[in-house]
Amino acid sequence: MNSYAFEKLCRWRFSMALPVMLVASALVAQAQPGHSTLVVTSSNDPNNNTVEVFELNTGSTPSLSLAQQLPTGGKGGAKGNGGIVQFDDRLGAVANFGSNTVSQLARLGNSIAVKQTVSLAADCTGPDSVALSGDKLYVVGSNCAESHAWPAGYLVGSVVALSDNSAAQIAAGKTWAAVTLKSGSVLQLPFYEDGALSGASNTITLPSDADNTPLGEAFWEDVLGFTPAHSPDSFAIVDANQNVHPILGPAPAFPSNAPCWVAKGPRSIWYTGNVPGQAVSIFFSDAQGGAFYKSVPVPGSPTDLAVSPDRKWLAVIYTAADGAHVAVFAIDEYGDLTQAATSPAIGAAGFSGVAFSQ
């Protein structure tokens, strides 16, 4: 048999075998047990930080039950921050403010485990927010912002020194990261080509009607949405060229309403945790501005929120008279919210950070 005939025979055999392989793969996939939707938050205990894992039953009557209480091996204690817990695919991260470490979390079936401890750069302290993007972990603390290879954990790029200790959150886009400072600034942190922090820090000039107490933030590709919470324009859009587009928030403004924390929803929707208004305040935007839509009540003061990877659920942590809770809202095709389930009180005074693992 010549080489041409042999090649044709091999291709024919492979084409005949491929449907069988695909069917077999599908049967194996169907046989595997489904992964539960988990909602992960942190106790932020200053003596013994724990990860609180809740399982979301997404059936006809959704419910949220405590599945795990997992010690991180570190100490909590962060205040006035967002994004202390993040998950991306099967790995997550939680910052231990009092221990100057980040615990790497791993999804194992329908449970969460601590995989390793990531230490901060020398002289960097008080990590209170983390971000995960591709093969990088970004951390901000009391005096530094830094990037680490992920999941290996070692330091990459250049450490960014901060001018004060008021960092509220770090988030990562395609070509830059951002840090909100409660003192009244937003910092643009450029990347090297590989996504590591370059060490540069550019202060974004904010207009006077949107510069009071920047807190939460999230990216939509390379466009940042953040909340200058105590300003009349309590939401704003920033592009990579530092063009700022303020958006008027719910009225009356602070102290009655203050969108504080941010989660990017489906399409052009942004969800914000309105602490004094005890609500999720919803905004729509494009890359050059937007509009406030409406507020949806929460049974307490929301302190962080997250959207599930499938864009079907919004988790909100809040504090009520009996302590900390997680509320989960269903997201419909238009981005509107319906409260679906609430976690029981577990004796925690408050939670810090929230993320989904699916």
List the main descriptive attributes of the protein structure presented here.
358 residues; mainly beta; Methylamine Dehydrogenase, Chain H; four-stranded antiparallel sheet; 1 helix; 28 strands; 50% strand
Architecture overview:
- 49% of the residues are buried.
- Mean pLDDT is 91; it is low at 1-32.
- The protein has 358 residues and is mainly beta.
- It is built from one helix and 28 strands.
- Strand 8 and strand 9 (136-140) form a beta hairpin.
- The chain has one domain (36-357): 7 Propeller (Methylamine Dehydrogenase, Chain H), CATH 2.130.10.
- The protein has one helix at residues 3-31, and strands at 37-42, 50-57, 63-71, 85-88, 91-96, 101-108, 111-119, 129-133, 136-140, 144-149, 155-161, 167-172, 176-181, 185-190, 202-204, 214-220, 223-228, 235-238, 244-247, 259-264, 269-274, 279-286, 289-297, 301-307, 313-320, 323-331, 337-342, 352-357.
- A four-stranded antiparallel sheet has the order 3-2-1-28, with no helix packed on it.
- The protein is globular.
C-alpha geometry: globular
How many structural domains are formed by the residues?
Answer: 1
Q: What is the helix content?
A: under 10%
Within the largest sheet, what's the order of strands? 3-2-1-28
Span between termini: 52 Å
**Helical run tally:** 1
Task: Count all strands and give the number.
Answer: 28
- The computed structural class is mainly beta
**CATH architecture assignment name:** 7 Propeller
- The CATH superfamily turns out to be YVTN repeat-like/Quinoprotein amine dehydrogenase
Major sheet: size, sense and barrel closure?
A: 4 strands, antiparallel
Low-confidence stretches: 1-32
What is the fold named in CATH at topology level?
Methylamine Dehydrogenase, Chain H
Radius of gyration: 22 Å
Q: Give the percentage of residues in beta strands.
A: over 45%
Q: Tell me the name of the CATH class.
A: Mainly Beta
Overall mean pLDDT stands at: 91
Order of helices and strands: HEEEEEEEEEEEEEEEEEEEEEEEEEEEE
